[in-house]
Amino acid sequence: MNSPKIYKVKGMHCASCASIIERTIKKVDGVENVEVNPGTESAKISYDENKISHDEFNKKLEPLGYSLITENHNLTASDMGMTESEHAEHLGLNQSKKEKLVEIKNMRAKVISAIPLAIISLFIMAWDIGAQLQVLKEMPLVWAEFFHHLLPIMATYVLFVVGKPYLTGFYRFLRTGQANMDTLIGLGTSVAFVYSFIISAFEESLLKNFPNIGATYFDVTIIVITFIALGKYLETRSKLKTGDAIEKLLGLQAKTALVVRGGVEVEIPIDQVVHGDLIIVKPGGKIPVDGVITEGASFIDESMVTGEPMPVQKKVGDGVVSGTINTTGTFIFKATKVGAETLLAQIIKMVADAQGSRAPIQALADKISSIFVPTVLVLAFITLGAWLFFGTASLGFAQALSYGLTCFVGILVIACPCALGLATPTAIIVGVGKGARNGILIKDAATLEKLHKVDTVMVDKTGTITIGKPTLVDIQNSSGLKEEEFISIIASLEKKSEHPIAHAIVNYAESKDLPIQNVSNFEGIQGKGLKGTINEVEYFVGNAKLISDLKLSFDIKQLEEFTAQGKTPVILATQNEVLGFVMVADEIKNESKQAVVDLHKLGINVVMLTGDDEKAAKYMASLVGVDEVVAHVMPADKLAKIKELQNSGHMVAMAGDGVNDAPALAQADVGIAMGTGTDVAIESAGITLLGGDISKLVKAIKLSKMTMRGIKQNLFWAFFYNIVGIPLAAGLFYPIFGWLLSPVFAGFAMAMSSVSVVGNSLRIKGKAL
């Protein structure tokens, strides 16, 4: 299959629009798949570029009132005379958002012009109702006559200027047979206007034959269109806020980089940075691309990428990522990833893809939306016919026609596919964006939905529960030496070794600013340790076998206790005595224990997988509090364990960070990659936790539950609103209770339904994880 292309869609206002666009594009030869998202107002299309171009799509869509915006996708940054970040900003913000801001500005101007007219109409309507209920006196004849002539003028302006999009929708329906929400509103308000115009124009002759037919609906036309235009304005403005995560991520990109070229510092656009460039970053500066520090040290604020509030210390050999901010020192780093390779670029792409994807829960709403408008149109005409057929006998033709038109317009106006169409995507957009701001990258909406059902989390010990590299965790000094001197001697000897355990000891000594002393007569002892002379004293460093060879006595049971805990002893001795030992282990992350407690609070069981010895694994598990331990596992065993749990009816999430975790991550219902891990693990996972912080796993599950709760609330109210509103507008309750819904209230309810759905989704933004 060809890789999909994402286009912004112009003219799309509701879920019915999305359904029409999908059906139209799917019919085009060469199209493999299409997904249209009303929340992001975008279309993701996979098609054979040898058979068709996007221009062909627009030829099919433009007669229906829609078009795909290419946003200069074929122009490079250099073509446009911009840096890569400016180019991305231009495409993402200057085109889509700029057009949307202009649209919002125009909508606002129309709404402001219509609101005074709606207030006047409401005033007249309220007076008429008050007079009918004998609460108010009849309106003075002069004012009644004035408003009688003013209302048609106001209604003409509101219908043909403010309501132009709805009239256009009605016109396109007549021409093409494709109906959307605009069609319903356009038809309903047009019928009310034309009926009222005929009554006003031929009032005298009509009143002779139908004495009770004098009621007009100019006020209904004005108020309904104003309410709906106000609702669409508020909805569009709110929708713009739901997708601000990508805009904020784009804003993190640096525009220039200070590089060393030919020994000279030169400031260049970041699209000109190449692999291997040496880049200088000064205090307060943004890091332009990904790389590795070669000179200097600093504290880097990575909160915008990982969500961690505290700046992270970086020194020579440490990696830095684009979009983060240097807080203190000046340093030089070598560029290793540029352009689309950088972590920030990948995050932006992942967030965009996820926000545009569909959750399975959306399927029912999509099916209903696709047939919603035609069904409502048919229902409205049936209702009008029913009122005329059954009502004329008991109410008279004039009254039956009046009630029938009220219900006809009410049904067309109150029916709202928008609330159904926006219920899921708006919540997904907000949820994915909130995750990105907290260092939780979600690959697609389906993953976010599945995560809330997870009841078992499998975690790989190394790199997930633990730091993932050896650390000095315990010191047992039985010599007369001070602890600093004791560690300094071991570190000085281990400095000559390349073993990971040696690095752990040396790193510990350096972190404590302990001196590394000169070592003479250094010699490695195969499989046992090493020896060397410091200040004319010969020292031995190694394992229990080395000490046995030296025929020195030591407490073997104490060592075995530590070994059972997964710790590796490194013993220091002279020819004559054992001076003590240090223990090196893969240290448990500070946040691991609390994360397991929090997972238990969510009702989730935690299973730890490890290739370690069972005793050591169980000891580690007891410290953290996991429910089950599986030791001595190979990659295939991890896969088998996941399948076993799934076959038992469990929803399983797997968290891991290594290449050997990739098959298990792919098999799990939800694969979760720790962001410090390998690219293979991240590629196999549905969720990536930046910074490798396991506490973010708890946040990710909470976010999923929060988002799904928002979606279910949205869908409930959207369905409930239509299920109750349409029968009420049709007059179904009139014979029993005498209830008849005014189109004015129908218009208000319809306008507020979409606004409430988007508003409910936006609440997710403000909730704590």
Structural commentary:
By secondary structure, the protein is α+β, with helices and mostly antiparallel strands. Helix content is 54%, strand content 18%. It contains 28 helices and 26 strands. Strands 14-26-25-24-15-22-23 form a 7-stranded mixed sheet, sandwiched between helices. Strands 6-5-7-13-8-11 form a 6-stranded antiparallel sheet, with no helix packed on it. A 6-stranded antiparallel sheet has the order 16-21-20-19-18-17.
How would you summarize this macromolecular structure in one to three sentences?
With 769 residues, the protein is an alpha+beta fold. 54% of the residues lie in helices and 18% in strands.
Question: What topology emerges from the helices and strands here?
Answer:
Layout: E1 5-10, H1 15-26, E2 31-37, E3 42-47, H2 54-61, E4 67-69, H3 84-132, H4 141-162, H5 164-176, H6 181-201, H7 203-209, H8 218-242, H9 244-251, E5 256-261, E6 264-269, E7 278-281, E8 290-296, E9 298-301, H10 303-306, E10 312-314, E11 319-320, E12 325-326, E13 331-337, H11 343-356, H12 363-395, H13 397-414, H14 417-437, E14 440-442, H15 445-451, E15 456-460, H16 461-465, E16 466-477, H17 483-494, H18 500-511, E17 520-525, E18 529-534, E19 537-542, H19 544-549, H20 556-564, E20 568-573, E21 578-588, H21 592-601, E22 605-609, H22 614-624, E23 628-630, H23 635-647, E24 652-656, H24 662-667, E25 670-674, H25 679-684, E26 687-689, H26 695-729, H27 734-737, H28 743-766
Parallel strand pairs: 15-22, 15-24, 22-23, 24-25, 25-26
Antiparallel strand pairs: 1-3, 1-4, 2-3, 5-6, 5-7, 7-13, 8-11, 8-13, 9-10, 9-12, 14-26, 16-21, 17-18, 18-19, 19-20, 20-21
Helix pairs in contact: 1-12, 3-4, 3-8, 4-6, 4-8, 5-6, 6-8, 6-13, 8-28, 9-11, 11-14, 12-13, 12-14, 13-26, 13-28, 14-26, 14-28, 15-26, 17-18, 21-26, 26-28
